[in-house]
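Final report, results section. Input specification for complex C-07:
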Amino acid sequence: MTMAETPVTIKVMDNGPYVVEGPITILDAQGNAFALPQGRAVALCRCGMSTTKPFCSGAHRNGFQDASRA
Ligand code: FES
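Structure output:
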């Protein structure tokens, strides 16, 4: 499977971030790419409390609650 064929998955974590796996690029509003760890999942904040947006900083542990189901 080539990198282009590798699926991207986004997992909605209970009371936590979106965990994104696969070959992705994340751009800021000016089109600049964030540095991402190679070959590892990325956790994106969905609680709004992160100190390292758009990434999860662990601040969701201060009371964010959501356990959405598909
Ligand atoms: S989801 Fe972890 S800090 Fe927002």
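DSSP finds no helices and three strands in the chain. The chain has one domain: 1-70. This concludes the modelling results for the funded period.
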